[in-house]
Amino acid sequence: MSPRTAAGALLGRTARLRWVHLVLGGALLMPFWLVGSLVVLPLAGGGETLLSGSVSGQFGAYALALPLAALAGLFPLVRPLSVAMARALCGVDGVRFAEGPARGPAARRRTAAWFTLHVGVGGLLSGAMLALPPFAVAVMLLPVPGVREFLRVPASLDRTWVYLLGPLAGLAMLLALAACATAAGALLARYAPVLLGPTPADRLAAAEARAAELAVRNRLARELHDAVGHALSAVTLQASAARRVLDRDPAFVREALTAIEDTTRRTVGELDAVLGLLREGDEAALAPAPTLAEDLSGLLARTRATGTPVDAAVETDIASLPALVSREAYRIVQEGLANSLRHAASSPIALRITEAADTVEIVMENALSEAAAPRPGGGNGLKGIADRARLLGGSCTAGPDGDRWRLTVRLPLTTGRAGSAGGAR
């Protein structure tokens, strides 16, 4: 190792930060050491004090302080404080540390072990950093006249060779202290991710939080796709139909423009709600979708305003459907209509909603054409419909049926399944 490399290892930025980490460990040990001193020094006798006690008394207080520090390390909040210091000062990649307070016995034990190691090693090195440098400097100044008398060097050491070796001995002491501090810092950096890293329980909690976040994001994606996608398809076709008959049928144009205004106003409100959730992270802020009873007629009217005939047969009392089933059924009908407009705009749409055996069935058909074939790369409309049906415990089938494209969705009306699906949302 070259002198420059050795100097970098002992005095470089990483080494200096780890020294600071060790000093902080010594500072954290002080309260426990003071408590240990109050117990040990009176037992030692001889009128010893905190500052003038014997070496054995000082180390006795240190030995008693370590178990006290281990007990303090069991508190959950010790881990985030320790992680913050280790992440900033130990030179270890921050992703290797656990986040949040220690939960569970295993995490608390590991945190207590780390805290004890940190304050124990830091206390020893901090004491050495306070005591050794002044002594080393004094040894280096032995050749200076008057220093020997001031330091009261014993006669047995009053030798010329001792004075000549003083500077070298003092420098060796300082280098040894720097090497010990560097080794101690490297030791803590090695064990920091081991003792402060995530436990299996932490990884499970992180996975569950990630799954919950993805579930919310998937729900937002479905809401945006169904609401905004349907609106854009409808508005595009409404504007196209109005343009084609602008000179011949002013009444239809007015109806189409009114439908465009209504569609965009409703969609802007839904878009604001979803974007508000993205900004604030509060799922309760997301306004629920309309139900079939609230807006099925409006949805059909806006679709017909595109110039596409829609033959709807509702053979059940949609007002009596459970709210969750009715909302999801509304989104399914909305997306089914949007798919028909997107892939087969000129084809009449047949919609039938029936109820039988505690199941509501939604069937939507339109003429099969090349436009109805799946797009390159596919889309998310049918997948979103299938997801909504699955979350309610239902089923979804879609595909060609002779010369027709048919979408069939069955949703159970049982309270138990509807309740569990509501929780899944």
TrEMBL record:
InterPro entries: HATPase_C_sf (IPR036890), Sensor_HK_TwoCompSys (IPR050482), Sig_transdc_His_kin_sub3_dim/P (IPR011712). SUPFAM superfamilies: ATPase domain of HSP90 chaperone/DNA topoisomerase II/histidine kinase. The chain crosses the membrane at residues 20-44, 59-78, 112-141, 161-189. It comes from the Bacteria. It holds the Pfam family HisKA_3. GO terms for molecular function: ATP binding; phosphorelay sensor kinase activity; protein dimerization activity. Keywords: ATP-binding, Kinase, Membrane, Nucleotide-binding, Phosphoprotein, Transferase, Transmembrane, Transmembrane helix, Two-component regulatory system. It catalyses: ATP + protein L-histidine = ADP + protein N-phospho-L-histidine. Its EC number is 2.7.13.3. GO terms for cellular component: membrane. Residues 217-282 form the Signal transduction histidine kinase subgroup 3 dimerisation and phosphoacceptor domain. This is histidine kinase. It comes from Streptomyces mesophilus.
